[in-house]
Design goal:
The chain is α/β, with parallel strands linked by helices. 47% of the residues lie in helices and 13% in strands.
């Protein structure tokens, strides 16, 4: 799922996202609450109307952003008091308030408010944090107004501790959410722990409801976690890296500013069908990005998002055909080169 934190997937128009077959994009509750405001967005017809995107949208709850404001927030059992990173103004997020904001934003899939514990953290801290997250999940579910229009997911937390992850998953399943997110596995922990825990949760979470691994990841991360039962992913990597000239391809990662591309008139990927590859050369895109021209960032972004979405499409086809393991084994060596 391409990330559109501020109501836009950076450098991309809605039409361009449709052209690369994006099915769903993300918005960020914390940022959109601060600017331009959820009440205003509600008046415009919700995020769909405000940003002119007539396809599914997912909004997170702001829990990760609040966690990242370590010096600007105070956590209590009722919620989180924090200072805006923009102007220092004070705000208070309760689970009920967060759901109200997400109801106003009008996304199709919304997240429960959670505390995302940092890594590393002691088991004692993570257990205390998990209790808050579970209490907030229950309160948020009670406050949710539009259950027929917005699917509210519970967020499985518990750090790197399997017993806490089990407790989290079981308690959330008792609350019967339409889907389950797996949080806290993209905050600095070793990749081995992420893979171990998604594999562990694969045998616990319901088979007939979607699993969403938040904030992940590299192409190889995605393929491994699909094998571990995950259905949905989001990450800023394809857009953020592309704007800096680091482009994902089926042949590995391309650093487009490298001197060897200065006079290379081939497309980024000769087998790619995206707009950038159909119309522009490596030399031209290298020139644009070297000169910090916005068009270069846009073309690189179009290609990298197209790559991620094509990777997901091929994975879906392999699952349907029952050939996912051979698909995985074919592309593992290539994608291992672009692991970060």
């Amino acid at each position: 799922m391409p990330v559109g934190t501020l109501g836009t997937v950076k450098a991309m128009s809605s039409h361009e996202l449709e052209d690369i077959h994006a099915q769903i994009i993300l918005g960020n509750t914390y940022h959109l609450y601060l600017r331009p405001g959820d009440e205003f967005i509600k008046q415009t017809g919700g995020l769909h109307g405000f940003i002119n995107w007539q396809h599914p949208i997912l909004t997170d709850s702001g829990g990760f952003q609040v966690m990242s404001l370590a010096g600007l927030r105070k956590i209590t059992k009722d919620g989180v008091r924090f200072q805006s990173h923009i102007d220092g103004s004070y705000h208070f997020f309760t689970p009920e308030k967060v759901i109200e904001i997400e109801n106003n934003l009008g996304a199709d899939i919304i997240m429960s408010f959670d505390e995302c514990p940092p890594y590393p953290a002691t088991k004692e801290y993570v257990a205390k944090s998990l209790k808050l997250t579970l209490d907030w999940a229950y309160r948020g579910k009670q406050a949710h107004q539009y259950t027929n229009k917005q699917a509210l997911f519970g967020i499985v937390q518990g750090g790197v501790y399997e017993d806490l992850r089990l407790e989290s998953a079981q308690r959330l399943m008792e609350m019967d959410f339409p889907g389950y997110s797996i949080g806290g596995l993209a905050v600095g922990e070793p990749k081995e722990d992420m893979f171990r825990l998604t594999d562990f949760l694969n045998n616990i979470l319901p088979q007939d409801k979607p699993r969403y691994l938040m904030g992940v990841g590299t192409p190889l991360d995605i393929l491994i976690n699909i094998r571990n039962g995950v259905d949905m992913f989001d990450c800023v990597m394809p857009t953020r890296n592309a704007r800096k000239g680091s482009i994902f391809t089926w042949q590995g990662k391309m650093i487009i500013k490298a001197a060897r591309y200065k006079h290379d008139l081939r497309p980024i990927d000769e087998k790619c069908t995206c707009y950038a590859c159909r119309h522009y050369s490596r030399a031209y895109i290298r020139h644009l990005i070297s000169m910090k021209e916005i068009l270069g960032m846009r073309l690189a972004t179009i290609h990298s998002l197209h790559f991620y979405l094509e990777l997901s499409q091929r994975a879906r086809e392999a699952i349907i055909e029952g050939t996912y393991e051979s698909f995985f084994n074919k592309y593992y060596p290539i994608l291992d080169e672009i692991m970060e």
